[in-house]
Protein 1
Amino acid sequence: MRSRFLILFLFLGGVSTSFADEAVTQSGPPISIFIARTAEQFQAPHVFTYHMLEYEEMHGKWIIPDIGAFDDGHGNFHEFFAGIGAQYYTGKKVALTEEPYFAQDTGAAGHRARYLWLWTQADFQFAPKLTGVVVLLPCLPLNHSANLEYDIDRAKVEYAFWKHVTLGAGYSGTKFPGSDWSNTPYMVTKVTTHEGIFEFWAQKTDGGGQLQVRYMLIRPKHR
């Protein structure tokens, strides 16, 4: 599988000093953040289950702009989103971020639904090597095609066994109208390099399992 070659490449490559924590805090010049995510099923035929690209900028505590796109890996569902938010609290043990998004669905399975997402993120520093994060995402309908949805994007705990490598476990889940919670626990490995932060989720799904690859690159914004 293509994802296996990607993992092999990353772990054979040297890791070096970069960004230690998932929470991004800054008080200097603006920074740019690029995020890419995808997932591939473990079971045959090893299809991709989604792709996501996102770009945002942090100006002090403010996040503006924040734009991105998502698809279901099959070409019949696309989602475009844009938001503005802020990291409204930063302490020694916790950082809190709130960001509302406007989302527009397209494609045969999208039904032109529109949503207001209320993104809430809490990052925790339990101990020098033990961190955690919780991201909650209720999706409020803005037109008749949309439905009230609830999403736990991630709730995880990680321990830094090595300087640039953390291991941990987490949970994500989604609740759609008329359905039970979709529970997807996972094991996670995070590798920090000069080229960005790479996360690998070995995740249980309703249909079997999948490997998620999550990438984040943080750079000072050039004026």
Protein 2
Amino acid sequence: MSIVPERVIVGNKREVPADMPVTLWADQVDAYVANPELMSALAWFEPVLEYLTPAELIRMRAKALVWREQTGAYPTDVCTWWEVRLGRRRGDIPHTSRRAVGHVDDDGTLHCGYCGARWSANYDGSSHADRCSLCDHITVIKEESYAG
């Protein structure tokens, strides 16, 4: 009896083109990462790429190529992509100054006005963070959006 290891796909659903199965996307990304010479003609640049490690850069380029193959266009916004988020967590990528108007629903959940991510209040009951942890936009919440 052989044991087949489980596969963990690391990323964010916003990185996968619409209507593309996640496992197919991951297989295509992995194929490009294993053969970076296939990405030599990739004519795509995003300023945040300059802050990534070499391995993250290869993976981001692979994801962009898969995105282009599936949608016909290069990605226009990668602020929610996994490698970018890791770079921000490490402090390698500077925070954005972009703002988004979020709202708090009746359950106290904050909804980012840019990427739509949902965030619960902190464990101690304190208010939400001033930035979306997914897209890094500064979250501006109008007082009337609080339910109670």
